[in-house]
Amino acid sequence: MTVDVNMSVLRSSNDISVNDSAVTVNGWIQDIRNLGGISFVILRDRYGTIQITLPKKKIDPELFEKITTLSRESVVSVTGEVKKSDQTELGLEIIPSSFELHSDAAVPLPMGVIDKVNVEMDTRLNNRFIDLRKPEVRAIFELKSLMLELLNEAMVSNGFLQVFTPKIVESGAEGGATLFKLDYFGRPAYLAQSPQLYKQMLMSTGLDRIYEISPAFRAEHSNTNRHVTEFISFDGEMSWISSQSDVMKMIESIVDHILSGLKEKGKKQLKILGKEINVPPVPYPVLTYSECLGMLASKGMHLKEGDDLGTEGEKLIGDIMLDKGYEMYWIAEYPELEKPFYIMEKDGTPFSFSFDLDYKGQEISSGGQREHRYDKLAERMRKKGLDPESFDFYLDAFKYGMPPHGGWGIGLERLLVKMLDLPNIREAILFPRDLSRLSP
Ligand code: AMO
């Protein structure tokens, strides 16, 4: 009898019924080493590699010839006997009795899988199907998937309902400059930049805690290592808050659950990546925007009240905070002019009940308390040069009973990138979209 196994079974198996019995392993031929009297084929699947050992004298000559002349990355099933071996990393090897070739890989490969040469990111992304065969690339996406699992866990345990809102919309929420325009059966429409308007509308229904994890689209004209045109936005909205601090506390508990969960459950992937996750203690320190201006001035960067902190400012604050031992911190109470119409003003001041969560010098989230009072909201829209009438579908939800509420949006890839200290957001997206990339 043969048992169909993958390498995780072999890795975890101390079971003698697998060892010493005939197994079939499926995978990609990673490497072939011919050493005269003996040849080795390294077979790889999602879980690892195993050595297929072919002592020339003991193997059928035709089988030997066929296996050892296969091209790298061909896909095969190999059947044989599992033997204990102290020569291999796994402590096991397979002596083949037969094999099946499913797909013969063309030569040469567009890029190598195990070669240690540095390949340009563009080449890697153009050949993502090969790039993702590398365990260290795949580990990022295994951690991303684990991150979503942990995130869902945190949301459910806090009583949040998962929702999905439209991605084809009539009006944007995050400013006209980054809207992708569509032709919707002859009418103008846009790709959603965020679920902002919908998640707020849901607060008026009594669904008092909701979250959404979905693609968000931004026509970003800047080519940076932290902007893409399509990213995964993790949004939450909650009613009956007393202040933005309630929202900040919620985010802290969710982020803490994700980071500690990944540290614990992602050990295997973190080891492949050679990374460790530091879990910053909660609560995270809160800096106000005005304090940040002071901190920057002390380092020679002089900004006026109302200026955007900018990438450089954010980085500098990150360095100052890291010197003090903080990787994660809040920047709160931005000038109301800097923040979108839906954010509540701090009455009698030029500031607002808003916050960003910054991680190692980069914004990973923003949010705040929302303006839930209809008249004030319409007034704030006009102040921002928007016509409240074109937002009727949204404003109506405020006209007929809206609780106080607040929420956030976290760029999932930005969080992952900072957690793993990856050099570019594109590393955390399977098939990234940016200013120049639309394929694959
Ligand atoms: P904001 O526009 O700040 O806020 O976006 C929220 C978070 O989304 C991520 N992000 C991006 N990630 C990658 N590429 C991009 N081009 C990009 N743009 C944004 C960032 C950012 O912190 N509606 C509000 C949130 C709220 O108030 O609930 C919003 O969208 O990590």
Secondary-structure blueprint of this entry?
Layout: E1 2-5, H1 7-12, E2 22-34, E3 38-45, E4 48-55, H2 61-68, E5 75-84, E6 92-103, H3 121-126, H4 128-131, H5 135-157, E7 161-162, E8 168-169, E9 181-184, E10 187-191, H6 196-203, E11 209-217, E12 230-239, H7 244-265, H8 267-273, E13 286-288, H9 289-298, H10 310-323, E14 328-332, E15 354-359, E16 362-369, H11 374-383, H12 392-399, E17 405-411, H13 412-419
Parallel strand pairs: 1-2, 4-6, 7-11, 13-14
Antiparallel strand pairs: 2-3, 2-5, 3-4, 5-6, 8-10, 9-10, 11-12, 12-17, 14-15, 15-16, 16-17
Bound molecules: aspartyl-adenosine-5'-monophosphate.
Written account of the structure:
It is a single chain. The chain is α+β, with helices and mostly antiparallel strands and 440 residues long. Helices cover 30% and strands 26% of the residues. The chain has helices at 7-12, 61-68, 121-126, 128-131, 135-157, 196-203, 244-265, 267-273, 289-298, 310-323, 374-383, 392-399, 412-419, and strands spanning 2-5, 22-34, 38-45, 48-55, 75-84, 92-103, 161-162, 168-169, 181-184, 187-191, 209-217, 230-239, 286-288, 328-332, 354-359, 362-369, 405-411. It has an eight-stranded mixed beta sheet, sandwiched between helices. A hairpin with a 2-residue loop joins strand 9 (181-184) and strand 10. Helix 5 runs antiparallel to helix 8 (267-273) and helix 6 (196-203) packs parallel to helix 12 (392-399). Bound molecules: aspartyl-adenosine-5'-monophosphate. Residues 174, 194, 196, 218, 220, 227-228, 231, 233, 235, 363-368, 407-411, 414, 425 line the site of aspartyl-adenosine-5'-monophosphate.
